[in-house]
Design a protein that fits this description.
alpha+beta, 4 helices, 230 residues
Amino acid sequence: MKQGFAIAIVLVTGLSGCASQQEILEERVAAIAEPARSYVIGTYVVDCEPRGEDCGQTFNAINANFHDVADPKNWSWLSSVHGDAFGHNTEYDFTSAAQKEKGYYFCLPLMPATYAFSTISYQNFAGGGSGFNLRKDEQFDARFSLGSAETVYIGRIHVTTSRARNLIGIPLSAPGMMIVSSGSESERQAALAKCPASIQKRLVRTAYLGDAVVRSSAALGVEPSPPSQP
């Protein structure tokens, strides 16, 4: 299988645009009274490499992006950030050096809509920024729907990394794949505990992404191989 990632140069202006889009989404959600807000909950996990007492990730940012199917410009993401110069680093709920993974539980307020996870991306911040984005023809379609005043559990989303070699044989970090599982009941409860107290009393609907990801497995898998050149 050919690697489905292309190298991307990330400019500071591009990062500012991303933040603005997120702020717009947050403002739309904030305009809804808390009891009527909709939430998606789950667990986000990334690979890490043990170094002494730490378990660091090999990219500064590892993201799983999703968007509103009816309005693709309305998009958001789950992200793990480490090494941000401004201190905007992710706070993790668990780290396992033995399993080489770390992650957090999330409770995200969103507008009612049908959403689709479609891509994963990896960024490094040094030298103005660079990274890997999944090519458009390799993007997938893992959907979940969210009704008004509803809380939906989408399971455990794990974005992996891999190892490869460049053209002269030097080992380097490379993209991996997105793996979705149902997670455990304890993880579901931990994610729900991240929601406002009034929301924790709701019944939670499960919208496991597994079937959608299985249908898109060919687009998700990335074999370890040297990254493509610009």
